[in-house]
Design brief:
Elements (H helix, E strand, L loop, with lengths): L1 E10 L2 E11 L4 E5 L6 H9 L6 E6 L2 E5 L2 E2 L3 H5 L2 E4 L11 H6 L8 H5 L5 H13 L15 H15 L3 E5 L7 H18 L2 E5 L3 H7 L2 E6 L2 E7 L5 H8 L29 E2 L3
Parallel strand pairs: 3-9, 3-10, 7-8, 8-9
Antiparallel strand pairs: 1-2, 1-4, 4-5, 5-6, 10-11, 11-12
Helix pairs in contact: 5-6, 6-7
Length: 277
């Protein structure tokens, strides 16, 4: 579903991505973990085609997003299948929650319909169903600005459902939310992954949530992949090396927590990659 091959991206005095290669199979839910500045957000932006790398190739659903630092001219066809959820929600605050959700259909509607807010009945029905699914159907007529942070993120997820995307990229979707809202958002994403088969790649600073909701984790450090394997195989020693002294809150007091019905720590499994430098 997603294939990244030897992608690099540098800025003056900084290597954002360093020969990154990975693949994500259809229906997987994968966590990107790593300290701030490790390259998680940059990687998601290059996969979605919002940023061009210096080299390498990225394909999504068999369609080339970029090759050797150039975005494909027909990238819009591939982007139509990719939904991106941002940390800051990216809703239009003055529009209603329902209209924000219906904007997910923008890629398959004539421009005049979206400019005039003349959405077809089936799009309106899908948007209402999507809002109900994420638990904010009763907020449909409210302006997006009136919602709490957790509710705004749910509206953004509903917009992705209206888009009918096959791949969902979530860039720190719970970073600015309280613990209860964070859990709700991650449960919604996990439900979408399980019931709809949508492939999800989500960057997370909180390792607890990666353990609980994502069977596989990819860890980045200094723009390169240092681990790719089962989330359950992550060890406290590796995570301390990954995050450094600033990661104590991320590691839940220096230990990996296990959750009822969720992943717990296990020995490193064959086929995973683990490096500490």
């Amino acid at each position: 579903m997603i294939r990244v091959e030897h992608v690099t991206l540098s800025f003056p005095g900084c290597t954002a991505l360093n020969d990154v290669s990975l693949s994500v199979r259809p229906g997987e839910m994968v966590a990107l973990i790593g300290a701030s500045g490790s390259g998680k957000s940059t990687l998601l932006r290059t996969i979605s085609g919002l940023a061009a790398g210096d080299g390498g190739q990225i394909t999504v659903m068999g369609g080339i997003v970029q090759r050797q630092g150039r975005l494909r001219r027909d990238i819009r066809k591939t982007r139509a299948h990719i939904a991106v959820i941002f940390q800051q929600f990216n809703l239009v605050n003055r529009l209603s929650v329902l209209t924000n959700a219906m904007l997910g259909a923008l890629g398959r509607l004539p421009l005049w319909r979206t400019l005039l807010h003349r959405f077809p009945r089936e799009v309106r029905a899908l948007a209402l169903d999507s809002l109900a699914r994420v638990g904010i159907r009763d907020k449909a007529t409210q302006r997006a600005a009136a919602l709490s942070g957790g509710q705004q993120q749910r509206a953004a997820i509903a917009r992705a459902l209206v888009q009918k995307a096959k791949v969902l990229l979530a860039d720190e979707p719970i970073a600015s939310l309280d613990p209860e809202s964070s859990r709700n958002v991650m449960e919604i994403l996990a439900d979408i992954n399980a019931r709809d088969g949508i492939t999800i790649l989500v960057s997370l600073h909180q390792v607890d949530y990666a353990l609980r909701f994502c069977p596989r984790a990819i860890a980045l450090k200094n723009g390169g992949i240092v681990y790719d394997g089962p989330s359950a195989a992550l060890t406290p020693a590796f995570l301390r090396a990954l995050y450094g002294a600033s990661g104590q809150d991320t590691l839940a007091g220096g230990e990996i927590r296990s959750f009822p019905g969720g992943a717990a720590q296990k020995p490193l499994q064959r086929g995973s990659r683990l490096k500490t430098a």
